[in-house]
């Protein structure tokens, strides 16, 4: 494929020796520098960026949504570099129909998200969110009114045994001497041989035996509302549920009922059906013991650089193979 040449009065003629990438979102400076060095990089705010749909062959994105209509409006699009694991904001069917490649970055953010699971779990176990909220509102909180749950040697149930689930298992087994029970219908039985754990045969087995249940599955038709009222009923009343995967896997209204009725101890949610979570939508859920954060599992500077660089590098490798 001949290299594309784009001319603009403010940018001049772009290099014939480099592929051109349109950058759809903001990225860390290191990622932008990499793109400028290795691509003809068209950035948001540059005049030529306004024509990205009609010109783009290689697209780098982070958090924007790319619908079937958007993809149809990109007649030359060949490949997308997507920072992060999730590609649910990209219409995968439309890309598949056109043979458009999607290069995401699984595994790169695993440690950061696993540490977020640890943060949410300990905060929920010790009621940090509600205690801090009361103090911030000027309410005195005598320590005698506080009671938490210890995590040492408890059972951690992991739904989804991918890179993040593995990192969670390593952290909790190492730091808390926790027993690990894991479920994943797609991995072979000899997965995680290096991590002491038991392999559950069903989601229900994980729920009924675990003190903490943490979700690490993609949102699909099979996993939407995987956890609802009936599932919470079989959990321990001292159990904690954590979701750092995708909003929609937990039925939020039924979680609120379960917390209000004391079916489980608490919940830590970094993912919601509405993001960022608002008080109007989630205030009553927070009132009954849920702790929310606005999908910040990978929101460390180190992770943003690593995932952005991984997406840009994969896209560059593919672009050079077609160039």
TrEMBL record:
Gene3D superfamilies in the cross-refs: NAD(P)-binding Rossmann-like Domain
A Pfam family recorded for this sequence: 2-Hacid_dh_C
Domain D-isomer specific 2-hydroxyacid dehydrogenase catalytic: 21-320
Transmembrane region(s): none
Domain D-isomer specific 2-hydroxyacid dehydrogenase NAD-binding span(s) in chain numbering: 119-297
Lineage: Eukaryota, Fungi, Dikarya, Ascomycota, Pezizomycotina
SUPFAM superfamilies linked: Formate/glycerate dehydrogenase catalytic domain-like, NAD(P)-binding Rossmann-fold domains
GO molecular function: glyoxylate reductase (NADPH) activity; hydroxypyruvate reductase [NAD(P)H] activity; NAD binding
Highest taxon of the lineage: Eukaryota
Protein name: D-3-phosphoglycerate dehydrogenase
One cellular component (GO) term of this entry: cytosol
Annotated source species: Colletotrichum chrysophilum
Protein family: Belongs to the D-isomer specific 2-hydroxyacid dehydrogenase family.
InterPro entries for the chain: D-isomer_2-hydroxyacid_DH (IPR050223), D-isomer_2_OHA_DH_cat_dom (IPR006139), D-isomer_DH_CS (IPR029753), D-isomer_DH_CS1 (IPR029752), D-isomer_DH_NAD-bd (IPR006140), NAD(P)-bd_dom_sf (IPR036291)
């Amino acid at each position: 494929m001949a290299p594309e040449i784009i001319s603009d009065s403010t940018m001049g003629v772009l290099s014939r020796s480099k592929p051109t990438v349109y950058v759809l979102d903001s990225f860390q400076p290191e990622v932008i520098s990499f793109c400028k060095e290795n691509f003809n990089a068209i950035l948001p705010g540059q005049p030529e960026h306004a024509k990205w749909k009609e010109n783009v062959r290689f697209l780098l994105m982070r958090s924007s949504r790319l619908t079937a209509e958007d993809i149809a409006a990109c007649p030359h699009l060949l490949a997308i570099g997507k920072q992060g694991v999730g590609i649910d904001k990209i219409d995968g069917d439309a890309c598949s129909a056109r043979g458009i490649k999607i290069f995401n970055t699984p595994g790169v953010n695993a440690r950061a998200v696993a540490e977020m699971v640890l943060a949410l779990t300990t905060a929920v176990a010790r009621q940090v969110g509600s205690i801090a909220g009361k103090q911030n509102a000027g309410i005195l909180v005598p320590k005698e009114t506080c009671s938490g749950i210890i995590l040492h040697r408890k059972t951690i149930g992991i739904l989804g045994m991918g890179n993040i689930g593995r990192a969670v298992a390593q952290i909790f087994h190492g730091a808390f001497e926790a027993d690990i029970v894991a479920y994943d219908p797609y991995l072979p039985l000899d997965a995680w041989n290096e991590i002491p754990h038991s392999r559950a045969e069903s989601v229900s087995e994980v729920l009924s035996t675990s003190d903490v249940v943490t979700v690490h599955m993609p949102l699909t038709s099979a996993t939407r509302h995987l956890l609802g009222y009936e599932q919470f009923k079989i959990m321990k009343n001292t159990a904690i549920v954590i979701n750092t995967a995708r909003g929609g896997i937990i039925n939020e209204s039924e979680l609120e009922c379960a917390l209000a009725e004391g079916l489980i101890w608490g919940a830590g949610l970094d993912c919601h059906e509405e993001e960022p979570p608002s008080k109007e939508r989630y205030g009553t859920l927070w009132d009954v013991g849920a702790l929310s954060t606005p999908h910040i599992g990978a929101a460390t500077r180190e992770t943003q650089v690593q995932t952005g660089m991984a997406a840009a590098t994969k896209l560059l490798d593919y672009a050079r193979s077609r160039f």
